[in-house]
Amino acid sequence: MKMIVYAVEVAERPLLERYGKQFGWELTLLAEKPEQNNAAQAEGMDVVNVLSSTYITPKLLDAYRTGGVKMVVSRTVGVEHIDVAYANAVGIAVGNAPYSPASVADYAIMMMLMVLRHIKPMLLRYAGQDYTAGYLGRELPNLTVGIVGLGRIGETVARHLQGFGCRILGWNRTPRADLSDLVEAVELDELLSRSDIVSLHLTACPETEHFIDVAAIEKMKDGAVLINTARGPLVNNSALIDALESGKLSGAGLDVFDGDRLIYYRDFKNQLIAQRQMAILNAMPNVLMLPHMAYYTDQAVEDMVRNSLDGAARYLNGEEDPWLIGEKV
Ligand code: COI
C-alpha cells in the first residue's frame, strides 16, 4: 500500500515512520502542501494524505484520480477543505483523523483567560518596560460561559471548565441530554443573551457560515467575549469588528478568522498581507489572534498521524474505517 503524505512537519516525521511500519505503508513524505504543481507526485499512490491549509479542489482530485489514487485522507477533524462530493463522484474515498479533544479545548480556555486578564496588551507593555498597574481582569467564577457545539471538543471544554467555578451553558444542534450533569442545555438565543463568554465549537459547513453575524451579536450580552478556536467562516468579520468598535463585545480570542486559510501556516515576513479585516482585528488590544495552533500538541499530532494511517489502511483492506467521510467508493 502506497501513500504520499503532503505538508509533513518535523514533529510528524518519526511518527509517520513508526506508524507507517505498523500499518504496512510504503510512505513518500513531502514538506510541500498539496497543490496542482505537485499533484504528479501522487501518481501511482493508493492514498494521498493532506492537511487543511490548501483546498483539495475538483481539478486536483481529477489529477489524483488520473494517477490512480483511491483515497484522500486528511490528518484533521474538519474536511471542508476537500470537495468530498466530487471526490466520491470520481471514485475517491475521503477520510479524516480525529485527535485528542483536550488540545483544542484547553487552548480555548487559555484564550478565555488571556482575554479576560488582558494578557496581550500586558505582554506588549512589558516588552516596552512599562510595569505600571492597570488592566482590571474578570474572574471566571463570576461569569457564565456558553459553549456552542457540544461535540468532542465542546464537551471537553465543559468538563475542563468545571474546576473554574463558572456557570456553563451549552447548545448543540442535536440536544445532548447525556451532558445534563455538565452543562445547562439552553436554546441558542438564550445562550447568546446570558453568556459572558461565547465559545464556538462547530464544524464549518454551508449551514454554519457566518453563524455569528450582526443578528447573533445583537442577541449577545453587552460586554461579552467571543472565542473562536473552530473555523474562521463561523464568524462574520465585519460584524465582529463593528461590535468590538462599538463596545458591544469587550474582547475576542481568535485562533481562526474568516480568510485565514491561505494565510496561516505560511511565512509572510517582510511582506504586506492584503487582508484589512485581519489587520483591523489584530490592531485591537482586546483581540487576541493566534495562528490556528489550538490542535498542535504532542498527543494530537500523534493521534492525527496514527489515525490517518490506520483508517486508510483499514479502508484499503476492505475493513470498516471508523473515520470515513461521505461514501464508500
Ligand atoms: C482540524 O483538525 O480540523 C484542525 O483544525 C487542525 C488542522 C488545522 C491541522
Q: In short, what is this structure?
A:
With 329 residues, the chain is an alpha/beta fold.
Structural topology:
Blueprint: E1 2-5, H1 13-23, E2 26-29, E3 47-50, H2 58-66, E4 71-74, H3 84-89, E5 93-95, H4 102-116, H5 119-127, E6 144-148, H6 152-161, E7 167-171, E8 184-185, H7 188-194, E9 197-200, H8 214-219, E10 224-228, H9 237-246, E11 249-254, H10 276-283, E12 287-289, H11 298-316, E13 324-325
Parallel strand pairs: 1-2, 1-3, 3-4, 4-5, 6-7, 6-9, 7-8, 9-10, 10-11, 11-12
Antiparallel strand pairs: 5-13
Helix pairs in contact: 1-11, 4-6
2-OXO-4-methylpentanoic acid is lined by residues 51-52, 76-78, 292, 295.
Fraction of residues in β-strands: 15-25%
Average pLDDT value? 97
Number of helices: 11
Report helical residue fraction: 25-40%
The number of distinct β-strands equals 13
* Overall SS class: alpha/beta
Cα end-to-end separation: 17 Å
| Sheet with most strands | 7 strands, parallel
| Small-molecule binders | 2-OXO-4-methylpentanoic acid
Give, in spatial order, the strands making up the sheet with the most strands.
8-7-6-9-10-11-12
Cα-atom radius of gyration = 21 Å
Low-pLDDT runs of 5+ residues are none
H/E series, N to C? EHEEHEHEHHEHEEHEHEHEHEHE
What general outline do the C-alpha atoms trace? globular
